[in-house]
Amino acid sequence: MTSILRGDFVRYEVSLDLPAVRKFAKQWRLAFATIYSYRAITMSAKKTRKFPRKCPSYTSISIPDRAWRARSDHPGSFFHIDQSQLTKLVKDKDLGHLREFGGVGKVASTLETDVLARIRGDPDDVSRRQDAFGVNSYKKPPAKGFFHFVFEAFKDLTIMILLVCAGLSLGFGIKENGVKEGWYDGGSIFVAVFLVIAVSAVNNYRENRQFEKLSRVSGNILIDVIRMGRRQRVSMFEVVVGDVICLKIGDQVPADGLFSNGHSLRVDESSMTGESDHVEVNGDENPFLFSGTKVADGYAQMLVTSVGMNTTWGEMMSTISRDNSEQTPLQARLNKLTSSIGKVGLAVAFLVLVVLLIRYFTGNTQDENGNREYVAGQTTGDDIMNSVVGIIAAAVTIVVVAIPEGLPLAVTLTLAYSMKRMMADQAMVRKLSACETMGSATTICTDKTGTLTMNQMKVTKFWVGQDSLAEKAYSSASKYVLDLIQDGVALNTTGSVYRPSSGSEYEFSGSPTEKAILSWAVSQLTMDMEEIKKGCEVIRVEAFNSQKKRSGVLTKKSVDDTFHVHRKGAAEMVLAMCSSFYDGSGIEKDLDGDERMRFEQIIQGMAASSLRCIAFAHKQVSEEAIKEREDGKKIQEDSLTLLGLVGIKDPCRPGVKSAVQACQDAGVNIKMITGDNIFTAKAIAAECGILRPGDDAFNGAVVEGAEFRNYTPEERLRRVEKIQVMARSSPFDKLLMVQCLKQKGHVVAVTGDGTNDAPALKEADIGLSMGIQGTEVAKESSDIVILDDNFTSVVTVLRWGRCVYNNIQKFIQFQLTVNVAALVINFVAAVSSGDVPLTAVQLLWVNLIMDTLGALALATERPTRELMEKPPVGRTKPLITNIMWRNLVAQATYQMAVLLTLQFKGESIFGVDEAVKRTLIFNAFVLCQVFNEFNARKLEKKNVFEGVHKNKLFLGIIFATVVLQVVMVEFLKRFANTERLSWGQWGACVGIAAMAWPIGWVVKCIPVPDTPILSYLGLKSRKLWRKIVRGEQ
């Protein structure tokens, strides 16, 4: 007897001669039971993880201890192969090493992947594989924490200057008045600055978290896998080593693995290698597949060997984080506007600084007791420094108020809010700029299938020869022809049929068209897909794609070793490949001109009933004919025999007609671009309201892709705006249309779901991919993913795009009103009286209301009905419209007039002292902004309260602002430099502020010209320049 300890396994092996085993069989069984029970008890108690000590009283036989292995520190040991071997096998593309190992089949058996059922896929199995080989997710750089954004806020130049001023003010104040009284001025500036920093950091942190969340959602791709013999969809993150993944055109490979079976598979490895040429993958020469690459053609099943960080793609992705600092076009425009206003603010602040310093050093300023603040030779250095610091703080605070820092914040908030709401409305934004660009869209080019229709397909018509067969009358057709159709359906498909048990329902997978045909063949033709596949060997496959609009398969029957070609695809395409047809009796007839015309009429009749027409064709070929064909890979495309036609119904989505009408009312033109034939396209377009009565090919509203393609460039540009429907189009035709529309000045949105739609999606101003039917290539090329593939969701995106633009315009009007009023009031008061009526702390509080709370209140307004009653906003239209200038100037003028009156005559009007007058000015100014915030909700409508009860956040912010203002005035006397006001004085402030509402109503009655005001100024300046130039000449 010998005892052996092998490699990764806890087992003991013994060599025994068979007679001895038979003789003592009962004793051996007893020993087996004793040993197994003993080890199970010791292992479950976890007393030790060491090997049991061998005793001379017994000899162990081979018992793999699975429980120990599952808990072992070497989890991969259970699978007889470790992760490093698997990774090296694929990464090095070492075909020789793979063959030495025993090929893909040996790797599969080592990973306990069954040939037919694949892996079990239950939670325990998945967990065991994840423990052994890791999970399919990538390590990412740590997300930015809250204090990162606090630190970023500190970097702002004006904040840094204010902090320096606050520090100096605090120091001099304490030195002059002691700690108890001297900390107020500097301390209050510190508190106000920290409050601004905290609010800014919180907003930026929340925005970053929102983007991280969206990033996780967009990365959660659904993958087709086979588990327990059943094809099912799981999250990419749930894929484990040993899984068998089904790949088709447009899919992203989610893990590293080996080609198991499939046909015509070509992979785009440009993301890994940078090479644009597609790589052929097969079982003989190159079975290696890599995570992150994309399927360009064909289909296959892949055995997963590495996931997550063990893949090459995982190593790359771990160093990459999604950049959410993308600047949208609107943000760029606002940054320019902010910069321009900031320059004006700096100029005003500098003038105020110079005036105040001159007045101070010339002895024209007085302290609170009426004494001159500066007397040459008498005023101490500390007093001079304290006064100068106060003057600098006032000037810097004017800059803070003048620079509209809230504009970029408003864009960020409204985009983040709209992205969150759009996600709930079935639209996932991948690029921020698409939110705002969609508001300017003038044309939407949409697909038909799944977007305008429900993508719930069902075969409703069946023709054999020229005979239409009712559902219950299929027995009247030739059995031979029906059998050939079954062969064509079962073998020429990328779909599958699964039935858990004999009494259960069938489950179909594949594209909607494939599922409809498979379901029909199983239920109506009683097709047994497994039996048909067992009796045939697939030699070659030509996968379906949107350009060829057909697929083909070459098979060999095992019964008689005959070769057969099966074709399936768009009816007129397949008909063109046929030279004969079978009639209902199974007799083959020539397809002459008259017969061909009859079939064309049948196809047109079905198409006019909104049916998608699919044809089946067949031909038996000789082995010699196969060998003679060029390159040996092409499947026969001519002299086929037509087997039959099916008509598939795909009903229009409910609500799509009203959605199309809403777009047309909003000045957005809808164009349908489809691969279906012209009759189906016209029927669906008329049903959806895209085509109006009288629109047809004669007036240029309907065109086929080939015809459009063959136009001259000039002719295309001339006709493109009239086209409403393009049928039998290729992805290249869609790209051509987008380019033509953009040349004509349109802002174009395009929907797409296929790999070949990627160029058009990238070329368009807004690319909209489909979340259900869309390939990963299409999604990556798009700006927004429509999660439910519904055209109604496209209209929702359009509405939100307009809402984003409109909300930002509201905030600009609100903010600029405050900017203009605050600047003018401080400047006039400083120049005339040498005093700034609003202190640094008060101006910082106004800045907080204006920048942060105002942005939050106005940026979260939801879309309204009237947004879809206006024409689209053009690319070149000014951000600040004439309507906004009218509203802004009226409110700012009123505020300046009232507050300057209070500055110069407030003491006599109210009979109060200087301190109370300053508080009245501050209180009236803040309340004016609160009331004006309501005006800003509606740029044109007079009723500014419409729908306000629905925006709880807006009402909450208004309430919070008023409460905080009361606290500032009544309870924070030393902090805010205010005095308590009487009820009468509060009433006066509210009355002054409330006048903003009637003024806003009256102003909106004043008509404004359509031509932008600034263009008039530009025109006059150009004329003046011409006069000067001519005068010099």
TrEMBL record:
Keywords per UniProt: ATP-binding, Calcium, Calcium transport, Calmodulin-binding, Ion transport, Magnesium, Membrane, Metal-binding, Nucleotide-binding, Translocase, Transmembrane, Transmembrane helix, Transport
SMART domains xrefs: Cation_ATPase_N
Membrane-topology annotation of the record: Multi-pass membrane protein
Keyword match Transport: yes
Reactions catalysed: Ca(2+)(in) + ATP + H2O = Ca(2+)(out) + ADP + phosphate + H(+)
Stretches assigned to the Cation-transporting P-type ATPase N-terminal domain: 106-174
Transmembrane segments: 157-174, 186-205, 341-361, 391-417, 816-834, 840-860, 953-971, 983-1003
UniProt keyword Transmembrane helix present: yes
PROSITE patterns reported in the protein's UniProt record: ATPASE_E1_E2 (PS00154)
Coiled-coil parts of chain: none
Subcellular location per the Swiss-Prot or TrEMBL entry: Membrane
EC annotation from Swiss-Prot or TrEMBL: 7.2.2.10
PANTHER family: CALCIUM-TRANSPORTING ATPASE 13, PLASMA MEMBRANE-TYPE-RELATED, CATION TRANSPORTING ATPASE
Function comment: Catalyzes the hydrolysis of ATP coupled with the transport of calcium.
Family to which the UniProt record says this protein belongs: Belongs to the cation transport ATPase (P-type) (TC 3.A.3) family. Type IIB subfamily.
Name this polypeptide is given: Calcium-transporting ATPase
Gene for this chain: LOC115734036
